[in-house]
Amino acid sequence: MAPESPPEFDETFVEALDLLLRWRRDVRRFRPDPLPAGALEALVARAALAPSVGNSQPWRFVRVADPARRAAVKAEFERCNAAALAGQDEERAVRYAKLKLAGLDRAPEHLAVFCDDATTAGHGLGRATMPETLRYSAVGAVFALWLAARARGIGIGWVSILEPAHVAAILDVQRDWSLVAYLCVGWPETDSDTPELERAGWQARDPRAGEILAR
Ligand SMILES: Cc1cc2nc3c(=O)[nH]c(=O)nc-3n(C[C@H](O)[C@H](O)[C@H](O)COP(=O)(O)O)c2cc1C
């Protein structure tokens, strides 16, 4: 069979990709309507195209639909968020309290992403000196999923204000799986080209963010 010819990514595509990166956004405010059947599976399939150390593909996805487990994750978020608020200095605390830091209440889908720390896939290649690259690989999958979602008009909200071991216990996953991301997935209420934390005055763009140092 003749090899398929590679696609050509023309200027229009490149411009659209730039827009996708610019408008990606972390979403905390969702419309409650469900995603179409198969949409989450399609996103996970795109996530699985991400690069991984040694081609280990250590990402593991858990769709959290059970109301009791969702409620337990939400309670865990509220506990961790209250602790984070208590740790703010006085001036920051007022602003922190006003931030919305999760869309767990309305997102139609909850997707937990774990890294399988015990996988033998990849045979250890590339991670002898940097074992953390296994988890970096799972982060790459999250980002691929995030872009694939936004391209379809679906918003993603990453929730990390959680104790990973508690979430692993709530979801009853394998002992060797570590939580990388807990994602809210659904239709965003609004779109913006500016991060919500920037709009809320919490953190503006850091001038170092796009810098390249020369050595
Ligand atoms: C590793 C990671 C963890 C995050 N955790 C949270 C979180 O717990 N709650 C939240 O509201 N946003 C969370 N975010 C979203 C960031 O706040 C957001 O990416 C950042 O403010 C920039 O906004 P943008 O994603 O819309 O560009 C997280 C993002 C990343 C990459």
List keywords for this structure.
215 residues; alpha+beta; NADH Oxidase; 7 helices; 38% helix; binds flavin mononucleotide
Describe the structure concisely for a colleague.
With 215 residues, the protein is an alpha+beta fold.
Q: Determine the mean pLDDT.
A: 97
Please tell me how large the radius of gyration is: 19 Å
Task: Name the shape in a single word.
Answer: globular
Name the bound molecules.
flavin mononucleotide
Poorly predicted runs of 5 or more residues: none
Determine and state the CATH class: Alpha Beta
Number of domains: 1
- The total beta strand count reads 5
Element-by-element helix/strand order = HEHEHHEHEHEH
Strand content: 15-25%
| CATH topology value | NADH Oxidase
Helix amount: 25-40%
The CATH architecture would be: 3-Layer(aba) Sandwich
Full CATH superfamily name: NADH Oxidase
